[in-house]
Amino acid sequence: MAKGKKSKRKKQKQEIRVEGREKFYRGKNLEELKSLDIREVAKLMPARSRRTVLRNSDVIQKFINSCKKKNSRGKKIRTHKRDLIIVPGLVGMVIAVHNGRNFEQVPISIEMIGHRLGEFSQTRGKVNHSGAGVGATKGSRAKKK
Fold first, then answer.
1. How many domains does the chain have?
2. CA distance 96 to 104
3. Where residue 27 falls among pLDDT bands split at 50, 70, 90?
4. Considering only CA atoms, which of 102, 88, 8 is closest in space to residue 45?
5. Per the domain annotation, does 113 fall within a domain?
6. Cα–Cα dist 78/66, whole Å
7. What CATH number corresponds to the domain at position 103?
8. DSSP symbols for 46-64
9. What is the mean pLDDT of residues 94-123?
C-alpha cells in the first residue's frame, strides 16, 4: 500500500434496523429469514460466520430439530455447543448454554443472528477481592488473640 493512502475496505457491521416494533437483519424481517434455508441465510452473514454455517449446516439443522422437539414436549434445551452459530430457526427459543460450571439461560433474539452461543454465556465471573486476611501482612501477624 502506498504511503498516506488508507485501505478502502471497511469492516462490514451486521445491520440490524428497528422500525417500530419490527426488527430486521440485513433488510429482512424475521418471517422472511425463517422461510429461507440455512444456506441462503448464510449468504447474508459476515464471512467468518458464513463459512462456519456452510461447513456445519447439517449439525445446525440437527440441533434446530432437536430444539423444536424438546420445546414441543416442554423440556429445557441444554447444550455444551458454545461454538454453534445462531440462525433464524433458533430465534424465540431459550437455550441453556454451559459455561464450564453450570447452564446459563440465553433467550435468543434477532440481534444475535450470526453470533455464537458462547458469546452470551460468560465463563468468567467478576471477582470481589476483600481486605487481607490475618497473617497476610507483617502487621496483622503481630496482633495478639
1. 1
2. 5
3. confident
4. 88
5. yes
6. 11
7. 3.30.860.10
8. -HHHHHHHHHTHHHHHHHH
9. 93
- Pair 106, 90: CB distance under 8 Å: no
In a domain, 100, yes or no: yes
CB atoms < 10 A from the CB of 68, how many? 14
56: left (phi over 0), alpha (psi -120 to 50) or beta: alpha
Residue 67 grid cell: 430444539
Q: pLDDT per residue over 56-83, tens digit each?
A: 999 999 999 999 999 999 899 999 999 9
Q: Which domain holds residue 60?
A: 16-123
- Does residue 102 lie in a domain region? yes
pLDDT, residue 22, reads: 80
Q: Report the pLDDT value the prediction gives residue 76, as an integer from 0 to 100.
A: 93
Query: Is residue 85 one of the residues assigned to a domain?
Result: yes
Longest dimension (CA), the chain: 74
Question: How distant is the alpha carbon of residue 23 from its chain centre?
Answer: 18
CB 77 within 8 A of CB 95: yes
